[in-house]
Amino acid sequence: MAVIFSTKQKHQLGKRRCTFCTNQMKEIDYKDIVTLKYFVDGFRKIKGRYYSGVCLRHQKMLSKAIKRSREMALIPFVNKYRG
Ligand SMILES: [Zn+2]
Questions:
Q1: For residue 78, how far is its CA from the centre of ligand 1 (angstroms)?
Q2: Could you tell me the residue range of the domain that residue 64 belongs to?
Q3: Is the whole-model pTM more than 0.85?
Q4: Which residues lie below 8 Å from residue 64, measured CB to CB, with a gap of 6+?
Q5: Domain total for the chain?
């Protein structure tokens, strides 16, 4: 028997929560490369909120952390070996 969802319920099912909000992270560390690399695409560009599902407050913190880690040469600005 098929379960029929209303459009509102479907929307709620597909809704993704911000990973930083769920883990209750107040600060994003620029030295934490493992988590930062998750929010960077193959060309090492910062992923948009649409793809990463991060809230606006944390996206701003994330972009700052990524830019800071780029300056500290922890994450490359551009991936040369792709595209
Ligand atoms: Zn958040």
A1: 26
A2: 16-71
A3: no
A4: 28
A5: 1
- How remote is the CA of residue 47 from the centroid of ligand 1, in Å? 15
- Rounded Cα–Cα distance for residues 54 and 1 (Å): 35
Residue 5 has pLDDT above 60, yes or no: no
Closest CA to 59 of 23, 19, 31: 19
CATH number at residue 39: 4.10.640.10
CA of 6 to the centre of ligand 1 (A): 27
What is the number of other CB atoms lying within 10 angstroms of the CB of residue 55?
16
DSSP reduced 3-state for 40? strand
For the chain, give the number of residues.
83
